[in-house]
């Protein structure tokens, strides 16, 4: 199949899933055309059947704002015609699904469109009255719509009031990018710990995000503060965003500045999971939580909140623990329980790894997308 993919090419989870899926599909022999503002950051080596088409927006004095959406639509239409694409896979309802529909009209080809909803396009933008209609238009005008969890599908029905069927297809990780850590840390793991002043006997908790308020990093620091009182430990925080400075201040106020490590954006998060014992994602909105899955595949046991799709990723008391949003007491109790009971930790880790392999395998999820591509092309998508 000849597939056009549009996503945000930056470090967010939606861009990662779009890129990793593109790589999987290219490895299976499909022709993949990324139509994006930049080369997606996870693409590290050329694949013969993968092409990147850059969207460049010119600035003219007549425009108060550069018209990215129109330029993107024009570029998609050009690529549809030039490469005779079979289908578009748009990640995010606005602007990308809407741009796909516009591009379809511009290209004059009856191309099929799949749209994948990732979360923020519904759970945040969906409440913006000026965008809700555009989101609905993007969803209703797509041939197949997928969401990254059942929870997000339900939220879409509730918030956007569409009756378009929405197919939940979970996030996945390409397994070799997140090798499972060995039981005994390697020399290079200890070297990485040394770089950041983490002692061999200290436990490591990790959180990775874009530091938006919805990620509730305040709850993560409160959780760590309680754990740190009884267990020698460090908290690694990877990422950058609006809450960064406030969270640094919070760590200082709690006298934890030497133990909460703000390491900024990192390209190779996998190395940090190799040295971590627990991953925390205590968000108040989260459609899936790709960072959890990346950490779990690496062998790091998760504690998550009840938000959105997290409950579908972690099986409470079986593959990790779930706590109410804002409940740092419960989160720290579970963390201490796991970190002080090596047998319990090992059992949960083993069950978690089995579950990741069963439900979130990259081949399984790629098969699901491919199945719906075929259904669309055969006209069986209603
Ligand atoms: O988590 C973010 O804020 C980034 C965001 C994005 O749009 O890239 O991630 C969303 O998509 C990921 C991939 O499907 C999901 O795993 C994340 O849970 C989702 N984020 C939210 O719902 C807040």
Automatic annotation (TrEMBL):
Name listed for the protein in its UniProt record: Glycosyltransferase
Cross-referenced Gene3D superfamilies: Glycogen Phosphorylase B
The gene coding this protein: pimB
Entry keywords, A to Z: Glycosyltransferase, Transferase
Residue stretches spanning the membrane: none
Record organism: Staphylococcus caeli
EC identifiers of the protein: 2.4.1.57
Residues in Glycosyltransferase subfamily 4-like N-terminal domain copies: 11-173
GO BP terms, alphabetized: bacillithiol biosynthetic process
Keyword presence, Zinc-finger: no
One Pfam entry name: Glycos_transf_1
């Amino acid at each position: 199949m000849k597939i056009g993919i549009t996503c945000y090419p930056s470090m967010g989870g939606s861009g990662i899933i779009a890129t990793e899926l593109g790589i999987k599909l290219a490895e299976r022999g499909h022709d993949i055309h990324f139509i994006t503002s930049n080369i997606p950051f996870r693409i590290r080596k050329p694949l013969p059947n993968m092409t990147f088409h850059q969207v460049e927006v010119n600035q003219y004095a007549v425009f108060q704002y550069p018209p990215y959406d129109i330029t993107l639509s024009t570029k998609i239409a050009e690529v549809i015609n030039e490469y005779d694409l079979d289908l578009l896979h748009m990640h995010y309802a606005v602007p990308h699904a809407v741009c796909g529909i516009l591009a379809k009209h511009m290209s004059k080809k009856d191309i099929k469109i799949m749209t994948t909803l990732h979360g923020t396009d519904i759970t945040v933008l969906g409440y913006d009255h000026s965008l809700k209609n555009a989101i609905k238009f993007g969803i209703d005008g797509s041939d197949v719509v997928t969401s990254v969890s059942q929870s997000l599908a339900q939220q879409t029905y509730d918030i956007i009031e569409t009756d378009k069927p929405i197919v939940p297809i979970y996030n996945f990780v390409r397994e070799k990018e997140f090798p499972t850590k060995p039981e005994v840390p390697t020399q290079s793991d200890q070297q990485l710990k040394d770089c950041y002043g983490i002692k061999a006997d200290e436990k490591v908790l990790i959180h990775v995000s874009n530091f938006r308020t919805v990620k509730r990093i305040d709850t993560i620091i409160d959780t760590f503060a309680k754990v740190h009182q009884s267990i020698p430990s460090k908290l690694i925080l990877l990422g950058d965003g609006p809450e960064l400075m406030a969270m640094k201040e919070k760590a200082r106020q709690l006298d934890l500045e030497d133990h909460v490590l703000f390491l900024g954006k990192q390209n190779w998060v996998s190395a940090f999971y190799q040295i971590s014992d627990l991953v925390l994602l205590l968000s108040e909105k989260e459609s899936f939580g790709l960072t959890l899955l990346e950490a779990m595949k690496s062998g790091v046991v998760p504690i998550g909140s009840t938000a959105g799709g997290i409950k579908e990723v972690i099986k409470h008391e079986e593959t990790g623990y779930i706590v109410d949003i804002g409940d740092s007491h419960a989160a720290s109790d579970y963390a201490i329980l796991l970190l002080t009971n090596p047998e319990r930790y090992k059992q949960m880790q083993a069950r978690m790894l089995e579950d990741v392999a069963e439900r979130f395998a990259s081949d399984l999820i790629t098969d699901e997308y491919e199945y719906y591509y075929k259904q669309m092309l055969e006209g069986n998508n209603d």
